[in-house]
Write a structure and sequence with these properties.
The protein is mainly α and 275 residues long. The chain has 2 domains: 49 residues; 193 residues, MetI-like (MetI-like fold, Orthogonal Bundle), CATH 1.10.3720.10. The protein is 81% helix and 0% strand. The longest helix has 40 residues.
Length: 275
């Protein structure tokens, strides 16, 4: 007769296997953390974050620059009203343009709503392409193509936002509960009806959250668009920087900070209403 396996030996074996799996998991986690730490430290070293001499010389210069910006000069505040409205209009129009194109692309880029894997791959590649080029570069291209003004800023913000918003929309659609979708399909609904009644009601809140966050982001980026000739308050900021009028620069930055805070508050209120 072979060796008998008692209940206690079975428990010991199971316990040993659990300990072995935990040990392996800890080793894998430690290896992954080490890789991330090495990547971070190497990046700091390559970018000069460990250059103490350079940093010690730079911080006093920042203090001198801040002192030259004080006190803020608000004497031209009336001339900033229209550029600020242009900045708000650019952010709203760019976000609306992005949403209009992101929803259909996201439906094609989600595994549970796309017609086939080829369309899925093409939609995902399109979203990657929109995200790959920064807004500033797109803005410069559109300024060269259609001239100065708000239009190139809106197009740049909208196109880049399609890549980011579309990706978040597609992820939300893929995480939709399958039960309502299957119920709509069982009732004989068409693919568009399944999306309208089985998918979109589930993801509307996530869509609203992403839209509000992207509007906040586009408002901040609208100031950068002005620096490349796309209008808005950024044009006033870059103009003051060129003539080294630092008190006016600080005043414009304060106005932008207040405007961003208002947009952030309004975005939070709208998100609460959409819940």
């Amino acid at each position: 007769m072979g060796p008998q396996i008692t209940p206690s030996s079975k428990k010991d074996t199971v316990f040993s296997e659990i300990l072995l799996k935990e040990r392996r998991g800890r080793n894998v986690l430690a290896f992954q953390v080490s890789l991330v730490a090495f990547a971070v430290l190497f990046s700091f070293w390559v970018t000069g974050m460990f250059d103490g001499d350079r940093l010690s010389e730079g911080f006093p210069a920042i203090g001198v620059l801040i002192s030259e910006m004080m006190p803020p000069d608000f004497t031209r505040w009336r001339q900033w009203i229209q550029p600020m409205f242009e900045t708000i209009a650019m952010s709203v129009a760019g976000t609306a343009l992005a949403i209009a194109f992101s929803v259909p692309i996201a439906i094609l880029a989600a595994k549970n709503t796309t017609p086939n894997r080829w369309i899925y791959s093409a939609a995902r590649m399109a979203l990657n392409g929109f995200r790959a080029i920064p807004e500033l570069i797109i803005g410069i291209i559109f300024v060269a193509a259609v001239g100065f003004g708000m239009l190139p800023g809106v197009l740049a913000l909208g196109l880049h936002s399609i890549g980011m918003v579309g990706k978040f929309f597609a992820e939300a659609i893929e995480h939709a509960r399958p039960a309502p979708i299957e119920a709509a399909q069982a009732a004989g609904a068409s693919p568009l009806q399944v999306i309208a009644h089985g998918v979109l009601p589930q993801v509307f809140t996530q869509f609203a959250d992403v839209t509000m966050y992207r509007w906040e982001y586009n408002f901040r980026q609208s100031t950068v668009m002005g620096m490349v000739g796309a209008g808005g308050i950024g044009t006033e900021l870059i103009g003051s920087l060129r003539i080294l009028d630092y008190p006016q620069v600080s005043a414009i930055l304060i106005v932008i900070l207040v405007a961003v805070s208002v947009v952030d508050w309004l975005s939070g209120v709208l998100r609460e209403r959409f819940k």
